[in-house]
Structure prediction request, 521 residues.
Amino acid sequence: MKKWLMALAAIGLLGTQAAAQTPGRLPANMKDFDAYVQHVMDQWHVPGLAVAIVKDGKVVLAKGYGVREVGKPARVDGGTLFDIGSNTKAFTAAALGTLVATGKLDWDARVVDYVKPFQLSSAYVTQSITLRDLLTHRSGYCDPGMWYTSDDSDVIARVRYQQPDYGFRAEFCYNNILYLTASRFIPAVTGETWNRYIAEHVFAPLGMDHTVTTAAEVAAANDVAVPHGLLDGKVVAIQPYWAHNMDIMSPVGGINSSADDMSHWMLMLLADGRYEGKTVLDSTTVRDMETPQMLIQAIGVGREIRAWLPGSTFYTYGLGLFIQTYAGHTLVWHAGDIDGMASAVALVPDSQLGVAVLSNMNQSDARFGIVQRVLNAYLGLPPGDISDTLLAMTQRARKAGEAAAEKLAATRDSTGRVPHPLSEYAGVYEDPFAGAVRVSMEDGHLVLRLGNLDYIGDLDYWHDNTFRVTWRYHYYGTQYVTFDLNDLGQATRLSMGRRSASFERVRAGAGGKGGSVGGGG
Prediction:
């Protein structure tokens, strides 16, 4: 790391003398590690997880805990595949770095010169934004939730309709779609898909033989963790994110890997790009990835990362990685969340230490309890237990959400009648940015469909022109939609409050710009 970064790290809390360690073996102060892992799994209702620890160029641990699917006997082991979510982003940055290191690309290359068509709402930003801006989340445009619920045909094209949240390069603002845009540089330069290129240039030289990026490859594997979530207070298996076409977001959050394979990745990063005597990444690429590029203020995701790994004197983002101080050391890390899966990877380069936690429970922060326990043991710090703190925060947030839901449910007019015939609400509603919604009459009631085929919901009258949507995929729960009507009593607009989206009704024969609307029942 650069000298100035290490100087900043020195401002942090000084760690006590590191625990005595033997490479390739857990230190003596981790003798209760397995029991602690089981404890946090119980706290967070995690069916199964895997942990990889590397130290001084050796794999200390690559082990599974619990089961791949609740209610079934198959155990998690070091080879079990988990979706690593946004830990994928560092792999995408690394793959792009191989092109930068060979002179085929520049981190400061303009997006419009490689991704076509590409347009943002600001002409200036459109012409000025670079690959580095995409990879460091400093575009000024925050993540557009439309990619989650809309169809997948043109999510990059539709960002032109999004309005900026901040000035260009003024604030860190996490954005998945712009990371997807960054991945498009690879086919533009090489003619290869992101999937093939990353398999050939990253996975293969690292011996990550079981790591995959497509739904077909996951389906063909025989040691795969199933995603889980809480439904009506019970842990249940849920379907993978975007079950109908998960491949759309693979460069952003779709790598499926194991503790065994992730140990290779960590060893390579800690060895400045080398693995088993081979150069996988140029050392300058690793340096660029781990050099702060954007300061993260305590807003938005900045609040979350301060809660996950507190105590730093600064929080920054490099290329696909967070960088902060940790007890006088530089800590390089990332988290990953996707439906039913949660992961974390953390590296302490000056101590040649790395830990990865992969789990099959939605939004489970057992990962950070385990990361903290490993870091503190090796760095000679008191054990700590951030898991307790995060669990209390999660429980408070859940109770607040339940209270808000109860308050909203109490607004129902149980004796009222729908003010207009249901057929008056049926139709196609579009927004050029958020996509399209179709409301149709089926078996005497209204059914709402978003572009994502998982978002099919039945509408129940609530009050005035508001209806509750109960999604048929019950894990997504319920939400509310409100129709605006004109003076003739005709529905002209549909608003989805929780998603802050508003869709204008499309008149018959008018055509539309919002993309296709999913069908099926």
Residues 1-22, 509-521 have pLDDT under 50 and may be disordered. The radius of gyration is 24 Å. Residues 345 and 356 are 4 Å apart (CA to CA).
